[in-house]
Design goal:
The chain has 383 residues and is α/β, with parallel strands linked by helices. Helix content is 44%, strand content 19%. The two termini are 35 Å apart. It binds adenosine-5'-triphosphate and magnesium ion.
Length: 383
Amino acid sequence: MEKIKVMIVGNNDNRIYEIKSLLRNDKVAFIGFSKLDENVLEKSISLKPHVMIIQCEDDYKAAIDLAEKIYIKIPGCAVILLCDSFDVNMIEKVMLAGIRKVLQFPIDTEILTENIELAHYMEKSRMENSDVSASNNMQSRIITVFGAKGGIGKTTITVNLAVSLAKMGKKVAVIDADLQFGDVNVYFDIDPKDTISELSQGNDAGDIDAIKRLMALHFSGVSIICAPKSPEYAEYVSPKNIETIINTMRPFYDYILIDTAPVFSDITMTAIENSNLVLLISVQDISTLRNTKITLNILESLQQKEKTELVINRLTKGLISLKDMQRVLNETIKNTIAFDFKTATTAHNKGIPIVLDAPKSEVGKDLKKLANYVVNTIDHRVS
Ligand SMILES: Nc1ncnc2c1ncn2[C@@H]1O[C@H](COP(=O)(O)OP(=O)(O)OP(=O)(O)O)[C@@H](O)[C@H]1O
Ligand SMILES: [Mg+2]
């Protein structure tokens, strides 16, 4: 069996020696080390390690900066941080940088090897399933989730679709383009430091490093660009910003999901026009169905209807039948999500997506089914 190639990075020679001596076994091979200096990235690229161990004392910033660059430049390389002490305030930064494991001295061969194997395995499955190795040529699939009414489940569907796709091993990002009241972060239980408005104000929309630095990384593997923290910051984000962000992210993700506000704004239209698939969410009430019908007509006149798929959320028996909805909308409905107030609300309140919190529930299974449908449909369309 091929040994896992490990590179060590750090500035403390004694520590480096100590780590190196722990790597003498039949599962891992030490392939080189570098100081944490301006040449480290170049050296890492030439060594192509499976796992990089960054030894750090108090200067976490340099280690985290390097981890971010490795995540982008060497897909397939898992980063482990090995520190003298661990400060809980670091957790968020560590997650954002895509670091797989944080370990602490003193450590023995067995624990270190186990963690190296696990980090390598996680990164390898991400690569195999998502084919990130071809990231430079990666053809991203862009999906806009839209709906003609508020509160009908757009965000619920975006978030759960994203996590389901990530669980399939896809590399997934979510952009919250509901700029005034976007709450994707609530569904993921994250409190972002920066949002899409800082990204747009800083003229960083075309800089993938800046985008990745600003994204929140959920433990499911989904990366998120959150909506502005307050509605007045929405004005800093232009349709051009949205388009630039999407185009900059394209080579790096299998799927980019865009959650939207229930309005036909320039922002929503930009998202729709740049998408391969539009999921138009509706529910079983007359006024939403009416608005959905109007939306379908508008999408048709804008030549965006062909890529649109209807999803009926909160489906319950005893209300308007599926057959009648199809007749009214003059569309085939291939995807429905069951109504389950308790499961949806519990997951929402906990900030844990339904497909993780209650994967066996009917609504959880429907959301997973939708993810499978999306993968089949969109891949068929793109290729
Ligand atoms: N299938 C479902 N069964 C029961 N409740 C659901 C279902 N899907 C979503 N909900 C609940 O409906 C509420 C609104 O959902 P969500 O925030 O996803 O809607 P939205 O369309 O994004 O709203 P907005 O337009 O305000 O952004 C939430 O409380 C959510 O938990
Ligand atoms: Mg929403």
